[in-house]
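INPUT
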Amino acid sequence: MMSQPPLELPFRIAALVKNYIAGNITPDEQAELDAWINLSEKNRELWAEISQGATNEWTSTPLHNYNMENVIGSIHHKIKKNKQRRTFIYLSAAAAILIMIAAGLQYLKAPKEPAMEYVVIGNEVPPGTTKARLVMANGHTIGLDKARDSSFTEGNGVQVQQQQGVLSYLAKNNTKEMPTYNTLITPKGGEYKLVLGDGTVVWLNAASSIRFPNRFSGNQREVQLTGEAYFEVTHDPKRPFIVAVNGTEVQVLGTAFDIRAYQPAITYTTLINGAVRVASKGSKGQVLQPGQMARSGNGGLSITNADIEQVTAWKNKQIILRDADLREIMEELSRWYNVDVVYAGDFNTATGVTIEISRDVPLKKILEMIMLTKSAKFRIDGDVVTVLPFR
Amino acid sequence: MFGTARTSEFNTVVKHYYPAIVFFAEKIIDNHAVAQEIAQDVFVKLWEKEQNFDNDTSIRNFLYLSARNRCLNYIRDTRRKQQREESIPLAPIPEDDITNNIILAEVWREIELAINTLPEQCKKVIKMTFQEGKSTDEIANQLNITESTVRNQKARGLSLLKKSLSDKAFTFLLLFI
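OUTPUT
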């Protein structure tokens, strides 16, 4: 479908223009350039745009100044991620073969004692699903899940569509009615995707909520968040997008970022690309660079480099926690698998645990992975997980 | 080591082309954040595809063509979404625009490169004069040099710039012979 344009022409014309600017264009080249300029109205417009540079002796260009070290860093990060993804696929295939061989050997050997050591006792707990609750301005509540599609019109004429686990507000600029405020709430074991009236996409993680107008009016777009969400904000320099969370304000200039605010006192804001300003209420705050994470709360603000893969794992249906405390991991699992965690002992020294796994698997599988690190054993009773000392 | 040499060659290509490719993509899709994303993905692909980075012509062709294809894909996807919602008919993107945007991006890229090869003080004076619009005495104050030095550096910068542009244009033309 896409035809390739001939590339010699633009490069040739660019070379002629450069000779012209440098003042060493030959009469033949000048004739060639003139002929091209006069070929079409578009070409004349382009030439007008370039020759504006003459008033600045050609020394200023519309190219942005980038921090090239950051740019190069982020490109190499993507290269590494691509490579890991490929390696992971090879390794998965290799692992599958090994498991089949091992299973075959086990079968032949007919083990005398079952290898019980790394098996979690108890019932199976399924992973979380796509579900949420929408509380509307008039107090009505609608349960949302993937199975039921629906579309309806809110009181002030705003169209809402619910399809395949995505809730979308269709922008309508001609209504004069005031916007009303809705709240989308995910329970433990739920997640949901929301498309706001301006096209901004929000992924809401488990045990979280977002309060938003069903249509943006005025000169800024503001939403309120609890818990965790990933935002891809539609670029609109005239109407800044603001996320208010726990006394932290994140001001957005068209971009993708993650906010994690499960603890009431601490908010983590991680910037994937674009630019955001993070500020404690009332302060001027700081602008994040892509790849940086801001930790804010109690009036303080500090910035570190983020592990983007880890921060955004949940949005990609994964759990990635590197070098984490056991308690942090259990907290994460408790939110997604909707279980309560009880500690039979002191696990404060159980640190430095790393897990990387899809979050679509049953809970037992993940707990068995953690057992392999020898940091704890587990028992599941209904929706309660008991963490036991390993020995 | 082979790996590090390849990396540093690649990084030089990124430095030389990244701002121009973002500019080019933004001209087509009119979204700076997405344009940066697209430019970065194009360089990732370049790294995966090329063994080394010494053939400037083929690198340049690859960068502009894949940026263009990604931009068209992006437009197609977003328009499709829009069309579903507002039933706007799709208009094709004229190829003329792509060609002219490549010309613009390449002209500005060469000028930026030429400015960046100027000696440090020359470069500062030129950038402050023309990009930040500062006056001779402001620059003299800020760089802690006399006004006549500022004027000299400016004249020297401009003449070096022309020379550097014409050298570049010359080597550039050799590629086509």
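end of record. The CA atoms of residues 130 and 154 of chain B lie 10 Å apart.
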